[in-house]
Amino acid sequence: MCKTVRVISLTAVLAEPGLDLKAVHVPQPNAPVRWVATSELVDPTPFLEGGELLLTTGLATAGWRREWTSYVTRLRDAGVAGLGIGTGLTHRTPPRGLVRACEELGVNLVEVPRLTAFVAISRRTADLLEQAEERAARTALDLQRRLTAAAAGPDPSSAILRQLAKVTTGVACLFTPAGQLQSGSPGDLDLLEIREQLKVIRSQGMLAALTLSSPQQVITIQPIGLNQRPDSYLVTATPTRPTEPQRRSVTTAAALLALVSEQQREKLEDRRRVTSRAFDLLMTGDHRTAQLLLDRNAFPTKLQLLAAQGPPEAIEDALTLAEVAGANGAAGRRGTLAVRVDGDLFVVAADAVAGRIASELAGLGLFVGVGDIAAPDSLAGSRSTAVQALARTSAARPVVRWNRIVHEGLTALIDQPTATAFSASYLGTLTAEQLETLRSYLRHHGSHLKTAEELGLHRNTVRNRLTQIEHQLGDSLDDPDVRMTAWFALQSAAAFVDDRRPIA
């Protein structure tokens, strides 16, 4: 258990009856007092740690005029909570130079009357510190009990976060390692900022924690989990600097959430096994049994399958993202199903949201192929086209859709090196003049007349050129297969301009 920091406010000391302390200049009434120190030294700062209420009779300051500014400056820099000047001995009243220096430097100044013993202030402050420590301990224990009780409910993570938000009078929520909201209400948190901060610290695993302070709020981010890789991140935001009981509550909540996460891991693996079996059934066309296995309503009538590849960590992030979206009932995600097969990710989604999901996966660093639209009982074909589309992805084009490949034609199905080599071998013996004639002839569907008109040639000249071309190709252009092959070779010569991945 963390040791409670003993601290009270200067206001609490000033309010103590019987001490008769007088606030001369107190711009920071809530300054934390950690102890009372007494010193008559000109420079007591080497013996201070910060947070002290320093008491002095000013024995060494008799006759001071300009020296007060440097004296108060040293005390301010040492972090004292305030200065108590005893009157009735060296100084009848607080010296004007001292008062002026405290006003200029923003240091709390208190007058200690002649009849108030310094030891009485020390003893009473010690009593107040002890009482504050006992209250903090009781408060922390009560908060811990409430958090533990929340963890015993049916939805422990959500209950813990709600209770923690009450305890800290702020925001408490969980984010996935990829920066997606997993549970809890983010309030007015800047989600983009949280996502960027997680990108920075997640490589440090369970060792990473972060505190962000601004005039509006104090944000803490800490990893949750019992393994080397965090399962999630706890993000809290408080309107002011959290108190000691609040900090201890955050620590308790983090520990409870880690235990809950570990307990839910086995359930998660069970759900993933069921989902994987349902996916296998869908691939065989048995969508009704898959539906019963998943205990859900009917699948949408139009589905698309997405195939994705990438680093294992990105695949896990993507799988978690799909599961969180499904658990939170994200709009349009009805029927969405995600599984990992031999290290790759496959997602079944309604065609209306497949494109958005593909973009999300690409944002996680994955290559994504989007298959053809299919009915629930014919998804095997969509999987095949998704794999074909995945094979065409590249760093320049991380998402490839099958319908775009269809639109691009046959050239989109052959990788660039193979198509270029084929074109060079098939057409390599033809001159530029013959290539121009062949292209025009094929474009006009074998019409000698239209080819002659386009090229400004006599029909006999066109016929002679085509005869020479057939001789060099070794095939007759009257054969539809030959014309198709020749057209493909002509298109392949200039069709590929981007770097594409070969089909495996």
UniProtKB/TrEMBL annotation:
Location of the Purine catabolism PurC-like domain: 30-127
PucR C-terminal helix-turn-helix domain boundaries: 435-491
A Pfam family that the UniProt record links to this protein: HTH_30
Full protein name: PucR family transcriptional regulator
Organism of origin: Kribbella koreensis
